[in-house]
Amino acid sequence: MTLNNSLTRLSLTVALASLSSLSASASAETIRIAIGTQDTTINCATGGLLIRELKLLEKYLPRDGKYKDAQYDIQWKNFTSGAPLTNEMVAGKLDIGSMADFPGSFNGAAFQKAGRQSQFITVLSGSTVGSGNGIVVPKSSAVQSLAELKGKTISVPFASTAHGMLLRAVKAQGWDPEKDVNITTQSPEVAGSALQSGKIDAHADFVPFAELFPHRGFARKIFDGSQANAPTMHGSLVDADYAKKYPEIVTAFLRAAIEADRLIAAEPEKYSELIAKVTGIEAEVNYLFHGPLGLQTRDFTWKPEYRQAVKTSIETLRLLKRTDSDIDVNAFINDQYIRGAYKQAGLDYEAHLKNYAKLPVTAKDAVSGKPITDAKRVAQIWVQGEPLVRHYATPESALADLVKLEKAGRKIRVIYGHDRESGLKLFADDAWFVSHGKGEFSVFLLKDSAEAWAKKNGGKVLDFNGAKASVAS
Predict the structure, then answer these.
(1) Do 183 and 253 lie in a common domain?
(2) Distance (Å, whole) CA 244 – CA 66
(3) Same domain, yes or no, for 237 and 350?
(4) Same domain, 251 and 343
């Protein structure tokens, strides 16, 4: 009996040790977090590039409870567009990915076709009126507006958010997209060369190419997506099965995104330079989007306009016969994780949901030293060698300082203005100016708009060089 009892106790001890070993093995599992980014789509920065480069995800990953002994295998993969990123998500090679409303909707359709589900979990950046998408023409083109492109060739990346904008803009002109214009498919990389060689009359594209091409000097923007009033956004998606298994990790990713947003809001010049270093897209272009009063708004909340953007993209993709899936938008968009991340961060999601304001200008006029209290006519200059952008309360103040800086031999990286009517942030050297009143200037994206405003309010229409010359004289 004594021998049998001893053997029994020994067996129990071995069994318990074995169970303990299995439990430790389970809690010490290696969890993959595979994230697809679009680095050159710079308004996805807070959902990819900045998180990766600043190692923010590691800061927020869960380390307690079922994750106490977990090991994390964080994998990053960069893409130039949403389609190949979607392919790898559907293939199970990626768990999270960031893209625009159109490719995001195609992502949902692709998962549905595979008998699975992806979910749109957050907005990253966008415009409730459509800014970010745009149409450009070659720099030497005489075309000043979309209305002048009838019968011309316009290229666009098919099934992109810019494609949807273009179709809407063409329809608003009363044109038949099959007869009145020749719409062809072209990636941004190919379109850049085509614009320079004059092989196309115009090109429609998404962030940041309608601004990048003009900044590089071979194109001129003639149409902004806001003119089509088609809301647009970029955001992040997750494999629904992965989110169900690891909800805390999804929330941690969003906490990292919120942290990235806080950092770039506080120091937009610094992080615009970082984005430039990683992507090759000039900091001046990054700042146009991410700096104060940027062309788009970094916004993580599911505003009705962004929900509508996703709904419209699904309908348009069906119309283009790019998918036959009928996705339930209310099930596809899942805001529970971003709401949870906001709560953990001590932020009020509902307050942010109601806030449509852009990142404000909290600065003093570089000339007068007085605080800027009215942002309607703000202008900015980034001087070579200076880490921070100079702010001005008015375009005339900026132009006067620009003349002084150039006379002193200082090199100017960029000068920004804001459209008098829409508030759009612009590269001033491609904008139109109306000189009026006592030396005052108003800035416009379109020549037609400048001429109409001058006719109504009095004033003279000038290009950038003309405006600068009038200040210097």
Answers:
(1) no
(2) 14
(3) yes
(4) yes
Write the single-letter amino acid at 442: S
Domain that holds residue 268: 27-128+232-354
Tally the residues of the chain: 473
Where does residue 4 rank: exposed (0-12), middle (13-18), buried (19+ CB within 10 A)? exposed
Res 140 pLDDT > 80? yes
- pLDDT-derived band at 5 (thresholds 50, 70, 90) equals low
Of 412, 422, 140, 189, the C-alpha closest to 284 is 412
pTM beyond 0.70, yes or no: yes
* Tokens encoding 397: 């103040």
The answer to the question of residue 11 being in a domain is: no
The total of other beta-carbon atoms located within 10 Å of residue 59's CB is 12
pLDDT in tens, 29-60: 899 999 999 999 999 999 999 999 999 999 99
State the pairing for strand pair 30-37/96-100.
parallel
Taking CA atoms, 242 is separated from 34, 60, 239, in Å, by: 11, 18, 5
